């Protein structure tokens, strides 16, 4: 009996699943993208990050496996697009608006299926926009702010109902802006930063919070560093913002907004300051992908991963 018990114990240890890998706090390099990109949208779906769009007109989707840190490609987007918005849901990637034909704001919604490696078009947005914010809240995808073909800010706030496939116009954001960061924390949508009428010399630090129950906005603590063109992602109760640009420089800042305390914290700076990139959350880390290290134009294949300190 003692021998059997010992064998059972040994077997349990032998077949126990490995513990999750612990990651050091701070920044680490990831697997470089197979092509350079900037002014992209990045969405997470089933453990992979999908990079869509490009300032220089590349249409092929880049797909990053967040577990193995390896890349593959998907079917090209139907046409060149940049400054678009994307989100993953129910096995698909939804891509909204963006600039097409140079700087014409689009109202089109395209849906990519990884299972079939194909695109289909869905109901168009009520408002053509580019460089807007996106978040999914209570069964709806919210599009907030952005700019028009003439680079003028819009305050429009439209929501796409995932169950019905229909659009609804909601309370406009109080401070119109483009190139803003948006994230969903609990039952609130948080919007911060951005710029006025496409001008990175007019960056904002404004934080505003949307409550879907009352269809209303409230003010939050301002971001410590006024920025636009950032990457952002939510981890726990915090919206992390990375990088951004002015007319002449890119930002290294990593700053996080905590909704329960209505406060900001500063973290280790981005190793490669850049703008026009995206970020996704994977387990206890945030992965930032591609973007431009120089203000204005530029592209890169950079992947850098941030692990925040435990809260």
Automatic annotation (TrEMBL):
Entries under InterPro entries matching the protein: Kelch-typ_b-propeller, Kelch_1
Keywords of this entry: Signal
Domain of life: Bacteria
Signal peptide positions (record): 1-22
Entry-linked SUPFAM superfamilies: Kelch motif
UniProt entry tagged with the keyword Signal: yes
Name of the featured protein: Kelch repeat-containing protein
Classification of source organism: Bacteria, Pseudomonadati, Pseudomonadota, Alphaproteobacteria, Hyphomicrobiales
């Amino acid at each position: 009996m003692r021998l059997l018990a010992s064998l059972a114990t040994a077997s349990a240890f032998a077949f126990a699943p490995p513990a999750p890998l612990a990651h050091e706090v701070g920044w680490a390099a990831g697997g470089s993208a197979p092509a350079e990109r900037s002014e992209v949208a990045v969405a997470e779906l089933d453990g992979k990050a999908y990079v869509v769009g490009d300032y220089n007109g590349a249409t092929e989707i880049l797909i990053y496996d967040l577990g193995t840190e390896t890349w593959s490609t998907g079917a090209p987007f139907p046409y060149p697009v940049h400054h678009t918005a994307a989100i993953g849901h129910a096995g698909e990637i939804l891509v909204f608006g963006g600039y097409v034909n140079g700087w014409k704001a689009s109202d089109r919604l395209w849906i990519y299926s990884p299972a079939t490696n194909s695109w289909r078009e869905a109901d168009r947005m009520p408002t053509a926009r580019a460089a807007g914010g996106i978040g999914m809240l209570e069964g709806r995808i919210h599009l907030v702010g952005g700019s028009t073909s003439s680079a003028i800010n819009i305050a429009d706030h439209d929501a796409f109902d995932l169950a019905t496939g229909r659009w609804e116009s909601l309370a406009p954001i109080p401070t119109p802006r483009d190139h803003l960061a948006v994230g969903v924390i609990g039952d609130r949508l948080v919007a911060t930063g951005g710029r006025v009428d496409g001008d990175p010399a007019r960056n904002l630090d404004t934080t505003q919070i949307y409550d879907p129950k009352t269809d209303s906005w409230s003010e939050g603590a301002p971001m410590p560093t006024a920025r636009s063109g950032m990457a952002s992602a939510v981890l726990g109760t915090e919206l992390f913002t990375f990088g951004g640009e002015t007319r002449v420089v890119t930002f290294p800042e990593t700053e996080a907004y905590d909704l329960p305390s209505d406060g900001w914290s500063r973290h280790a700076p981005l190793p490669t300051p850049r703008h026009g990139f995206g970020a996704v959350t994977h387990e206890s880390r945030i992965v930032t992908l591609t973007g431009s290290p120089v203000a204005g134009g530029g592209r890169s294949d950079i992947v850098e991963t941030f692990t925040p300190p435990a809260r």
